Batch of 4 targets.
Target 1
Amino acid sequence: MTPRHTVFAGIALIVASSAAPAAAGQLRHEGHAAHWRATHQAIYEQGNDIALLEADPEADDGYKTPVITRARTDIRWLRATLPAAQWRWTSPCCYSRRPIYIR
């Protein structure tokens, strides 16, 4: 390798290694958002399936009861896969305020 190729390879390595942590964090964040969206979509669809089965008067209870029970179990399982919400409030909670008395 010529010195010119060595310098070029060194610069390429520095540029690639400096961009890697940012890209890795971005992919991780996008992956979490995609998981969150897919999970909520699945919960929404299961809820709609339950509502349609419960609203159908012609469906046999012997058929729809196990299906509804299984769908509710799936919803509980999907909710358990989501991380707990971490809210960031700009002001303190309303319970920490002094009560307002109206005369």
Note: The radius of gyration is 27 Å.
Target 2
Amino acid sequence: MKNQINRYTYREEWSEEDHSYIARCLEFPSLGTHGPTPEEALAEMKSLLAGILEEMTENNEVIPEPFGLRRYKGSLSLRVPSDVHRSLAIEAAEQGVSINQLILSKI
């Protein structure tokens, strides 16, 4: 179970409102733990997640796959207003690149 916990994606950030660090597991967006340091908040999150994963396993629930183990096609489909599309096409033409290359350079 410990190896599985370490495969998930975590973020820690300071919360001025809570006057502590908050750790989150991105695959479980409703979870959050607090701690006086990023390390302690993360340790709390991993401890909480271990219990949740154990409970989910016992209940035969589907456990989210870690982002790092998921397969991605490498393509996105994005809808934008026609005026934005036109602006991107013009900017790409001015730079001598494809719209795809232009958007990739912006992200």
Note: The CA atoms of residues 64 and 70 lie 10 Å apart.
Target 3
Amino acid sequence: MGYGGIVASEHSSGVSTRRGGDYQDGECTLRRRQEEVSEEIREIAWKAQHRLHARYRKLVVRGKARGKVVTAIGREAAWVAVERRVERRTLESPMR
């Protein structure tokens, strides 16, 4: 999930290693990347943001743990990005 900015936390010192839950990283990178894309792409991203936020609210209201909800939403967002990339490559490649 590093691609989407979600990475596992880790606290290490010497020989001891403690691994924790996932946390969001890369907000500054995301903002810089958004400045470089077209208005059309930003519009698509904004619609996806609204849809995922609604899903987040729905899951939290149903009593799901917030950490698990954040991870689930992040994975869904990453999957949508991967699907779009595959779809774009499929459309660009010549038929055999």
Note: Residues 2-92 form one domain.
Target 4
Amino acid sequence: MKFTRIKQLYFALAALLLASLACSLVEAPAATEQPAATSVAVATPEPTQEQKPEFGEILLEENFADNSNNWYVGADAETESLVEDGKYKVRILIPDDSFYWFVPPVSISEVDMAVDTEFTEGAPENAAYGFLCHFKDGDNYHRFRVAPDGTYAIDKSVNTEQSYIFEWTKTNAINQGVGATNKLRAICSENHLTLYINDAFVADVVDTSLSGGSFNLMVGAYANNQDDKNPIGVNFSNLIVQKPLTWERPTEVLMADSFDNNNNSWDIFDENGNSAQIENGKMVIKVVDTDSVYRVWPGVALSNVEMTFDAAIQEGTQANVAYGATCRYLDNNNYYSFSMDGDGYYTLTKKVNGTLETIIDWTQSSALKAGVGETNHVRVVCLDSTLELYANDQLMISSQDASLTAGGFALQAGRFAVDDQPMSVTFDNMEVKYP
């Protein structure tokens, strides 16, 4: 399954108030996600800022010069594998929505692992490869998947129940197509799942569901392109497995964006008049649908995140416009949402397994500049159970909630049903750090 954009709907709890009154809203459950074959095409910009942590004690350095470490080799009805030419070569013969794991000669639960990969055959949208960690059996594991169509995901299975920690997302860090090589590095340590692709940092998400177990290489062969039944081929080489160092909070800016281009892999879109586009040095989200909010996310995932940005209403009736940011975004049924409106009100809500709850109801603040054309400098912090919202350097929300731990972050904008005028909001000067 890969992510398909679905708008989120607003519905008023009571009649919408005009002018200086804030709007109390509840969101309707979103439709279910669709298979990858119907996913929305997105841009493929450049990777985010490179980040290179220190290395720990090396436990395994495998160059596949021979098979002295007894990797699984041979052929059966579903797979072929061999060690040859300094590579571990794997073929999945039938793309049927299955994945296969390959057991290494060492076992370690908390792990820092890196490998060079080469996608050798098959439809890019049918393939995925990477690592498992905290692997106990086929029903319990964390999984890092990279696909040669330019997407990646992090998910888990706990007692057969599968769920995403971060949904399939596009990033230009991935070299695409048949013949493409990619260096992958994954770290599973202290409940953090961290991923680098070609030395570019792309994700640090948190999950406490699993511990113990070990790690594996993995290859998946899916049926997203049902017209292509060709086998999936992946080569692995230069595998290095290390003990991870003690996890330390990154102190540098992990992503900065002045929106002069789409180098940070934002999932820009244009759908029936609703859009998120980079225009004239700004991210512009436009919404024409009544009682709707749309989100746009980059190719970087952080569960714990501090993001700052400038936001301004570009068009629309100020009482009809909401904007802000989302963190811990897993899908349209799981997220925290920080919203502000054009009248100077703000709110904090959460949705957990499709149930919407208000954490902080709509409240007016003199810290927010009201009106069309006014720029507000916004800061959002999601750190463990702490949720904070600042406007123009003044704290408006400081709340505690531990319902959600995983997921990424997004910018958002939406319109209410005050009138029929479309709205648009601009975002600029964004910085993303670990809080």
Note: The two ends are 31 Å apart (CA to CA).
